[in-house]
């Protein structure tokens, strides 16, 4: 089977999230039996093509002057020609900014199956930030697709509400074996690991929660990640007076990430929006307790024993952080081991086999 996959991100891009990791982990397994081509945007220092473990990556588009979104805009404009020129038996499309859905259903080959992979579904965030109705395009565009891969039951319900005819297959992300090899310690800091997006990732709520705690009880926070909002985050640190308690470490390579997960006391994910929350599963696999808001999909992905604050309530988050931070080391270690057992359900081999079966079913129908 010849698979053509449209991915708006790439693992080599320092600003990338969990989507391209899933793309790679799935297809490095499927490439043993199928021919896989992945189209991605260009990014700083990218090469026109790249081969990874049998997967052929082709980069489309280019940056225009200093326009930060030009890589994605020119990528989208390049897709019609590329999709018409490349021979494929199955077309798989990751949803992407700004509407989630794209115009791909209008120029794809009608005699070949087409599957939407819902890695991104945040048009409402773009509507909030840019004051334009991107969510209208998302709600309408979902109806142009018939088959979907979604990561959680919550997203399945969302897609089926917008498109009652949707055929959704729930296939979560996996966790690499390297996380289970970590020998966790119970350290003295809490860790945030993810893209620096102040509103979407709830960093404003996290800093407000920290400000509510007495200085003597306030844990140190390590923020690991990059994004486009470092300046906004810096302003939040100044406004809340949290700078002395927050360490910004930026983008971390695998070795540094392992060290942070090994040595943190617990991880905190205060996100308002996620499609899965891969770092939750990774932290649990590393034997770490995770503090979350009791909201979907985080409360579906994280281990059941994860301490949960009232959804998007800074005061509740402050209380949960304080309670978790004060737990004895032995209790936190025990909670971490239970979380590790929970995370074993997120297995890339199993997910890849299930996704391949869905692909074959789509091609045979």
How would you explain this protein's 3D organization?
The protein has helices at residues 19-30, 70-85, 104-107, 123-130, 134-141, 153-162, 177-180, 203-212, 230-240, 254-263, 278-285, 298-301, 314-326, 329-343, 348-364, and strands at residues 2-6, 35-41, 49-52, 55-60, 90-94, 114-117, 147-150, 167-170, 189-193, 220-224, 246-250, 266-269, 290-293, 308-309. With 365 residues, the chain is an alpha/beta fold. It has 2 domains: 2-174 and 347-364, Rossmann fold (3-Layer(aba) Sandwich), CATH 3.40.50; 177-343, Glycogen Phosphorylase B (Rossmann fold), CATH 3.40.50.2000. Strand 3 (49-52) and strand 4 form a beta hairpin. Helix 1 (19-30) packs across helix 15, helix 8 (203-212) crosses helix 13 and helix 11 (278-285) crosses helix 14 (329-343). The longest helix has 17 residues, at 348-364. It is globular, with a radius of gyration of 21 Å. The protein starts with a strand and ends with a helix. The model has no long low-confidence stretch (mean pLDDT 94).
């Amino acid at each position: 089977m010849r698979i053509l996959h449209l991915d708006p991100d790439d693992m080599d891009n320092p600003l990338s999230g969990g989507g391209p990791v899933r793309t790679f982990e799935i297809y490095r397994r499927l490439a043993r039996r199928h021919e896989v081509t992945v189209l991605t945007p260009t990014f700083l220092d990218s090469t026109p093509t790249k081969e990874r473990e049998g997967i052929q990556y082709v980069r489309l588009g280019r940056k225009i002057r200093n326009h930060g979104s030009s890589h994605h805009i020119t990528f989208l404009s390049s897709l019609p020609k590329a999709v018409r020129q490349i021979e494929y038996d199955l077309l798989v499309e990751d949803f992407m900014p700004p509407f989630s859905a794209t115009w791909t259903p209008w120029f794809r080959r009608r005699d070949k199956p087409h599957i939407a992979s819902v890695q991104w579904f945040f048009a409402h965030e773009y509507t909030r930030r840019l004051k334009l109705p991107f969510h209208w395009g998302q709600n309408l565009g979902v109806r142009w697709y018939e088959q979907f891969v979604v990561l959680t039951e919550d997203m399945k319900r969302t897609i089926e509400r917008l498109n009652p005819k949707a055929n959704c297959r729930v296939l979560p992300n996996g966790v690499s074996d390297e996380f289970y090899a970590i020998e966790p310690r119970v350290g003295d800091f809490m860790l945030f690991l993810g893209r620096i997006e102040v509103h979407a990732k709830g960093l404003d709520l996290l800093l407000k929660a920290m400000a509510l705690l007495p200085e003597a009880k306030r844990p140190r926070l390590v923020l690991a990640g990059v994004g486009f909002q470092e300046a906004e985050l810096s302003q939040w640190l100044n406004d809340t007076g949290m700078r002395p308690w927050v360490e910004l470490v930026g983008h971390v390579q695998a070795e540094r990430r392992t060290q942070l997960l090994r040595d943190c006391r617990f991880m905190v994910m205060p996100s308002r929006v996620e499609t899965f929350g891969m770092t939750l599963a990774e932290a649990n696999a590393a034997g770490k307790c995770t503090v979350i808001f009791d909201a979907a999909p985080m409360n579906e992905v994280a281990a059941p024993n994860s301490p949960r604050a009232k959804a998007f309530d800074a005061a509740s988050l402050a209380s949960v952080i304080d309670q978790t931070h004060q737990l004895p080391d032995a209790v936190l270690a025990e909670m971490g081991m239970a979380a590790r057992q929970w995370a074993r359900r997120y297995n890339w081999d199993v997910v890849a086999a299930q996704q391949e079966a869905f692909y074959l079913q789509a091609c045979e129908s």
